[in-house]
Amino acid sequence: MKSKTLKTITFLLLMFAASPQLFAHALWIETKATGVKGKAQEISVYFGEFSENDITKADKWFSDLKDFSLAVISPSKKETKLTSKALDNKYQAFFTPDEDGVYTIVMHHTVKDVYGTMKLDYNSSATVVVGNKTAGNTILANKNQISLFSENADIAKKDAKVSGVAAYEGALAKETKIKVIAPNGWEKELWTNDKGEFSFTPIWSGNYMVEYAHTDKSSGEHNGKKYDEIWKMATYQITVK
User: To bridge 109 with a disulfide, which of 68, 124, 135, 229 should be the other Cys (CB 3.0-4.6 Å)?
Assistant: First the structure.
């Protein structure tokens, strides 16, 4: 009986460690919301628990997470792959904008290992306004399967409503739950409306993280291991002045 109980406890502990809903770590992009033509723009990619200010050291990222893809889409829809390098607690990349409009930075990675019965799929994006917003200021610039976007992220201010939109598989994510995390770790769950829109009013200045997670109840085999569901996460940071 003791052996059976011990096995049950061990199994539950392993499932706790394997479940992304429980450990809630995410990949996210940080960059300035505005840029200048001809000047290098720094892009940082972090992994950890944003709400707890818990950032994992770059050499401690699990599985093959470090092999994420990173690209920038210009206002004229030109896509350029970016090469990143590991620093102490992040990966860093640069691009130099050469036209006016909104640049979209996209990160994607499907983890090599299946955790428990889940295939993990991480996504993140950021937008950079250069000069004006006449081109590229749309969520459609992001080709990831799951994404978030705010057309006014560059002018977000404390005590003023911030609006955004969520998308899944090329369509607006209607009546979908998302989460907003404030700079001090305070969290609030929101639901998009029938147009995929959400809004919140920040009461503190600093970096806010918007997260959108979706579990696809489909089964298959990934790198020789079976899975019963695919967990997808999108992140989008908004800096509030």
Answer: 68
